[in-house]
Amino acid sequence: MKIVRSWVFACLMISVILQSCENDLRDVEKISADNSLLPVDKSYGVEVIYSDSAIVKAKMLAPQVDRYKDKKYDEMVKGVTLIFYDENQKETSRIVSDYAIRREGEGLVELRKNVVATNTKGDVYKSDELIWDEKQRKFYSNKMVQITQKNGNVLFGTGFESDETFKKSRIFNATGNFPSGAGLMQ
Prior knowledge:
alpha+beta; six-stranded antiparallel β-barrel
């Protein structure tokens, strides 16, 4: 009798375990069937030209761009380089980051992870995040930023905004060590 009870108990336990696994498998199938999590298009070696009245204003280079049409954004998981030009097609600034996302319709590009921007004066801007507002043609960040000027001055701040050339910059809650008489942001 003990053997029968043990055998019945074992069969019940096995059926409960199998039943719970079946439910989990259904959930997994639902999740894997959700195609909105997958990119619609993967492009490699991407170069996008931004122009105004047939004059090139900027260029975006990315090794890979994943487009998510349902969510309306492009993701650059392998990094991106943005290059800005003046009216004479001379480079005014360059930004590189390890990751970026461009939200369609919003005109915003979020640059994240090891963001480094340089301008023609030789100043270097570093942060973990920098937002490019394509419509207003400016950059901003609410993250910590470090600016190393060509003359060696180093400036830190809790936020930042600038035009696309990084010549007219504003840093929030700035701190740093400067030799006497050294200019901060020229």
